[in-house]
Amino acid sequence: MDVSVSAAKGQLTDLVKRAEAGETVLLTRRGEVVARIVPASSRRTIPRFRMETIDEIVRSAKEKLKAQAAVTSDDDLYDEFGAPK
């Protein structure tokens, strides 16, 4: 996210919250980057809402795989001698 230094004066609290959530905020002056606001932690963290979304996608995929496995069984793939059909 790019923000001019003059605009950042009025929204510093919001910009710091964004940085805490893992976003890098670039401060610009006349279109040139002059500073960055980044998380203090050296490791990047994934914002909670993104992590919840990822968890939901994984859960949904697992449920779909279980449902698909119930429909398809090995009996349909091999003949009575164990050879592929």
UniProtKB/TrEMBL annotation:
Pfam families: PhdYeFM_antitox. It comes from the Bacteria. InterPro entries: Antitoxin_Phd/YefM, YefM-like_sf. NCBIfam families: phd_fam. Antitoxin component of a type II toxin-antitoxin (TA) system. Belongs to the phD/YefM antitoxin family. This is Antitoxin.
